[in-house]
Structure to design on (204 residues):
């Protein structure tokens, strides 16, 4: 399994207090990296962990990229994957693979993955990422725009209840978090606290 290297990131953390934002961004970046590494080429899947859901769309292996959208659990799956599909298509057209491939390979081999999902492609090279993020905040509006795009078959999207279901045999999320060099100590404490709160509850 090759480590995922963040190429480009866009964030909207306005729904969190300024005290929480750094920690939440840490956890979202860690979640995005973890699920991207465990999603096979051409696969689409949605994975829920605590209050977040990571929607992952892996392009064919020849493209070498995946898109991850981390949202709350209420964000519509169809809209999330329509957005990822559109943005990945546009990224492939507007950002040359030669401009990032060698550096991404070098970072992957070194293991020095940037923290908080900071990308190696400058936002000025692909400002559409932040523009799409702003435009798709209201999924009802986005879904109206995308209703004519029926090429995505929702039945082919793999839905997982938790991130644990995409881990490889013998892997443990708690240990992955603890070993992660990209997560701050504060973020690790935030993760443990969230897991503890969710472990007390169940659906009857």
């Amino acid at each position: 399994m090759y480590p995922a290297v963040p190429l480009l990131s866009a964030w909207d953390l306005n729904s969190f207090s300024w005290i929480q934002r750094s920690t939440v961004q840490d956890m979202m970046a860690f979640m995005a990296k973890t699920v991207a590494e465990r999603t096979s080429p051409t696969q689409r899947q949605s994975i829920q962990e605590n209050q977040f859901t990571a929607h992952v769309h892996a392009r064919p292996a020849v493209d070498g990229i995946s898109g991850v959208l981390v949202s709350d659990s209420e964000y519509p799956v169809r809209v999330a994957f329509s957005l990822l599909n559109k943005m990945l298509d546009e990224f492939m057209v507007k950002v040359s693979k030669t401009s990032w491939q060698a550096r991404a390979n070098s970072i992957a081999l070194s293991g020095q993955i940037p923290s908080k999902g900071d990308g190696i492609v400058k936002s000025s090279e692909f400002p559409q990422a932040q523009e799409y993020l702003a435009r798709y905040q209201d999924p009802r509006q986005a879904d109206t725009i995308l209703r004519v795009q029926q090429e995505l078959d929702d039945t082919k999207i793999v839905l997982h209840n938790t991130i644990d279901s995409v881990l490889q045999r013998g892997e443990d999320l708690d240990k992955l978090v603890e070993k992660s060099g990209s997560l701050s100590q504060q973020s690790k404490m935030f993760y443990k606290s969230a897991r503890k709160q969710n472990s007390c509850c169940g659906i009857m």
